[in-house]
Amino acid sequence: MTEDRTPPAQHQDQQPGSEQQMRPHPVYITDRYRGAGKLKGKVAIITGADSGIGRAVAVHFAREGANVLVSYLNEEEDARVTCAAIEAEGSEVISHAGDIAERANCQALVDKAIEAWGRIDILVNNAGEQHPQDNLEDISEEQWEKTFRTNIFAMFQLTKATLPHLKEGASIINTTSITAYKGNPVLLDYSSTKGAITSFTRSLSINLAKRGIRVNAVAPGPIWTPLIPSTFGADTVSEFGGSTPMERPGQPAELAPSYVYLACEDASYVSGQVLHVNGGTVLNG
């Protein structure tokens, strides 16, 4: 996973982007990762699970024995690949397409999981979107609201819908970002939502501690996912990850084990924390 440095120049015209069109394809799991039954018998809901980070987390969870509900927006082909990979690990999978910025879709995800498996043990709030703009004046109110609705409003809505079914020992994991800690000059609205996610994670962890439900987050740095070529121009993509101390983007497979750790009993005394997986950038937060 470390042979290639930055990716070749490329661009996709539509978000959330297609993993099938990326060159090289992201690495979402390797033979080096050996499951140990850490999530055996558990049920997980993962948003944005058709590709990228969500796919990697879903397949790693499956390798650890979990059944997975794959939530995604509209990338049907990517979702089929993810579902097939989960089934190949011997786990059950359900997929659900729809915009989680709409409250009814959040409730539908929860209802599907309960109908199929009768329980929910892990919620991974991972879906997100970003739209670069050079200046604050270039960000419309519509864009600002849309980014917040997808990245943080949906997280609130889905967590609220899931909570009645979470029992002691359950785990909620939110995907925040390095941008919440160091900012990004062209991702003002995205970075703001990620800061909100970090604060939501910390506050909710305290709120749910007495119920025995852990809440944590992962803050990725530059990870090679479809969101990158569908967000940035080809020249920017060709330099992606090059400014990290490791001088390369990370692969989803290098990120997913941190979600496994936070989901399983190995992290039974961990809540309100953020794991930074970012290629060596030192952050104090």
From TrEMBL:
InterPro entries: NAD(P)-bd_dom_sf, Sc_DH/Rdtase_CS, SDR_fam. It comes from the Bacteria. Gene3D superfamilies: NAD(P)-binding Rossmann-like Domain. Residues 9-21 have a biased composition (Polar residues). Keywords: Oxidoreductase. Belongs to the short-chain dehydrogenases/reductases (SDR) family. This is SDR family NAD(P)-dependent oxidoreductase. It comes from Halopseudomonas laoshanensis.
